[in-house]
Amino acid sequence: QSLSSKKILIVYLSRTNNTKALAEIIHKQIGGTLVSLELEKPYPQNYQATVQQIVHENETGFLPPLRTKIGRIQQYDVVFVGFPTWGMQLPPPIKSFLHQYDLKGKLVIPFNSNGGYGIGSSFQTVAELCPNSNILEGFMTRGGSERDGQLLVIQGARAKEAETIIQAWLRKQKLL
Ligand SMILES: Cc1cc2nc3c(=O)[nH]c(=O)nc-3n(C[C@H](O)[C@H](O)[C@H](O)COP(=O)(O)O)c2cc1C
């Protein structure tokens, strides 16, 4: 089915803007409302401190409160959810988002950038947290590697390439 009559929300979490670049490409191709998820209390600048904090949050199941509020989530038919892989898991702020907003009955489409180790359990966790949604096959690509000092890499020629791959994925999913 075509998306032309559907209301689309594109929500993403991004620390070094790789996932943001993917979100903007999707937005450019299919439109909708683009929202960056921000926290009440941002993570530290320091990479190692952030890694440690996330390990702890994952262990305790802590759901970091979101500063971003989404108005009338019921209005959307399709929700793209974008995030980096953190510690081979779904980042805690995305867990917060999926706990806070009921995506029942909606088409939910994950997308991801990662440092080269893949999505880990992240897409599986999205499915678990959206038991009453229709989950489409997600998109993932290699982004940066903050550990190795590689921040934004999805730019220039890499962004053009990502655009082509994303378009093919959206077509395959019959979204374009
Ligand atoms: C705290 C933290 C943990 C990460 N853990 C992983 C990981 O487990 N596997 C992986 O492939 N990349 C990992 N990365 C790298 C990011 O997934 C990758 O750089 C991604 O493109 C970042 O997206 P962003 O620019 O939208 O923030 C981690 C990055 C951070 C900051």
According to CATH, the fold-level topology is Rossmann fold
Sheet with the most strands, sense and barrel status: 6 strands, parallel
* Ends apart, CA distance between termini: 9 Å
Radius of gyration: 15 Å
Walk me through this protein's architecture:
- With 176 residues, the protein is an alpha/beta fold.
- The chain has one domain (8-172): Flavodoxin domain (Rossmann fold, 3-Layer(aba) Sandwich).
- The chain is built from five helices and six strands, in the order βαβαβαβαββα.
- The protein has helices spanning 18-30, 47-60, 92-100, 122-129, 157-172, and strands spanning 8-12, 33-36, 78-84, 107-114, 134-135, 139-142.
- Strands 1, 2, 3, 4, 5 and 6 form a six-stranded parallel β-sheet that branches.
- It binds flavin mononucleotide (FMN).
- Flavin mononucleotide (FMN) binds next to α1, α2 and β4.
Give a short summary of the structure:
34% of the residues lie in helices and 17% in strands. The protein contains five helices and six strands; from the N terminus they run E-H-E-H-E-H-E-H-E-E-H.
How does the SSE layout of this entry go?
Blueprint: E1 8-12, H1 18-30, E2 33-36, H2 47-60, E3 78-84, H3 92-100, E4 107-114, H4 122-129, E5 134-135, E6 139-142, H5 157-172
Parallel strand pairs: 1-2, 1-3, 3-4, 4-5, 4-6
Helix pairs in contact: 1-5
The structure holds flavin mononucleotide.
Residues 14-20, 47, 50-51, 54, 84-88, 113-117, 143-146 line the site of flavin mononucleotide (FMN).
GO molecular function: FMN binding
InterPro entries: Flavodoxin/NO_synth, Flavoprotein-like_sf
Domain Flavodoxin-like: 8-174
